[in-house]
Each structure stands twice: as C-alpha cells, then as structure tokens.
Specification:
By secondary structure, the chain is mainly alpha-helical. 70% of the residues lie in helices and 0% in strands.
Length: 162
C-alpha cells in the first residue's frame, strides 16, 4: 500500500464534521442517514462523536427532520401509513413519528379526496372497475381503506354507504 493511500484512509473529526454540515446545508437528514453516509469516511467512534456534537450544536435534529419530511410528503399527497413507514426506514422512532404527525395534524380524509381528484380528474368512480383502480391508487399512496373509500364516495356518489 502506498503512503498516499494510507493518508487518504484516515479522516479527522473536523473533516467528518465539515462533510456532515455540507450534507445538512442541502437538506435535513436523520441521524441514521447521516451515520450511513459518514461511515464511508470514518470509524464508528468518530462518526458517533461527530453526530453527537452536531445534535448538541443544533445542526442535526431527528425531530426537525421528521417535521420537514412529513410536511413534504403531505404536500406530495402521501398518506399517513406510507409516511410512517418511510420515517421508520430512516431511523425515526415510532414515538417521534407519532408526535410529529400529531403536531402536523393533517386532515387525512380531505387529503385523500384531494389526491383522488388530482389523480383522476373528471373520472367518475361509479364504475366498479374504476373504483377498484382508484382505491388501489389511494391505498398505495398510504391512505387507509376508510380514507380511500371516503375520497371515492365524497367525490362522486354522495349517498354511497361507507
């Protein structure tokens, strides 16, 4: 192994910190996401130390990440089930997810209706085949069956029994 390679393999805590701050300058990251990225450059101990310091200094916050992520996903028309799943995949605890969702307090039924109207404009859902297609679409975006059925009934068939 050449001397140059050995030098490039070692990275200082400050270099890791600068790298992490560079990532955080572009968007919010969960601690788990940052950890994955930084482990490519440094040791577990270094990364944990840098992440602890970033959290203490307020540069990284899982709570803030969850809030931003939820707002973003809601604006994209995703439902609670999908948002919860994605946040768990990003290392956010169930308690933190629940708290952030409660704070955001979206009207999931209205959002499901909005997504249905945006995705299927002018398409009546009275045809059973069309209803199934629209129902699958809404459930796939993370809405519950109850929310998806509400979106179908509220848009076209006012007396449809849920």
């Amino acid at each position: 192994m050449s001397r140059g390679m050995a030098m490039s393999d070692t990275v200082t805590d400050s270099e890791l910190r600068v790298s992490a701050i560079g990532l955080l300058a572009r968007r919010e990251y969960s601690r788990a996401e940052l950890q994955q990225k930084l482990l490519r450059k440094g040791s577990v101990e270094q990364v944990e130390s840098v992440l602890d310091r970033l959290q203490n200094d307020g540069y990284q916050s899982d709570k803030r990440f969850a809030e931003v992520f939820i707002r973003n996903r809601i604006s994209q028309g995703h439902g609670e089930i999908k948002i919860r799943y994605e946040l768990r995949q990003k290392g956010i605890t169930d308690d933190m997810v629940s708290a952030a969702l409660q704070e955001a307090d979206p009207d999931w039924f209205a959002l499901a209706l909005s997504v249905r109207e945006r995705s299927f404009p002018g398409t009546p859902s009275s045809d059973p085949k069309t209803q199934v297609k629209q129902l699958r679409h809404l459930v796939g975006r993370g809405f519950s069956y109850e929310q998806a059925r509400y979106a179908l009934s509220a848009s076209d068939i006012p007396d449809f029994d849920i």
